[in-house]
Design goal:
The longest helix has 17 residues, at 2-18. The chain has helices at 2-18, 60-64, 66-73, 103-110; strands at residues 22-26, 29-33, 36-42, 46-52, 77-82, 85-91, 116-121, 127-131. The radius of gyration is 20 Å and the shape is elongated. By secondary structure, the chain is an alpha+beta fold. 28% of the residues lie in helices and 36% in strands.
């Protein structure tokens, strides 16, 4: 439970740093409304935050302020969603600098393809492959 509260606080700090909030002024008091956090899914390999933006907050802010989100949450973030509902996935490890080609690992994924092309692998180690069309 305390882990989720810590992660929630980290996401709110990221929103504050990136200035993704709505400002409410009442007299001489100023308060901030942050996007509504729906779910925090913390796994061994990633942490996913699901949230919705408040009405009046520009969805383009997430892409414009991606650098600020990366400074708080980490450099391996993935932002998905549109208009109102979004998710930010923070991967706990980054892509390797060098990949070793191992035919035995790749073969099960490409054995039924006519002319397969192995491109690389994703962050979880699964190979990227495709079919070369002529």
């Amino acid at each position: 439970m305390f882990e989720k509260l810590k992660l929630r606080g980290q996401l709110i700090r990221a929103f504050r740093t990136a200035e993704i909030y709505r400002v409410i002024k009442r007299g001489d008091r100023t308060s901030y409304q942050f996007p509504k956090i729906h779910q925090i899914d913390h796994q061994n390999t990633y942490t996913r935050y699901a949230f919705s933006l408040l009405n009046g907050i520009d969805p383009e802010l997430l892409t414009k302020k991606r650098w600020a989100l990366r400074q708080v949450l980490g450099s391996n973030i993935e932002i998905n969603g549109s208009l109102k509902n979004f998710s930010i996935t923070v991967h706990h490890k980054s892509l390797p600098k060098m990949l070793n080609y191992n035919y035995e690992v790749i073969h099960p994924h490409i054995k039924k393809m006519e002319l397969p092309v192995c491109i690389g692998q994703d962050i979880y180690g699964s190979p990227f492959h495709g079919i070369l069309r002529i």
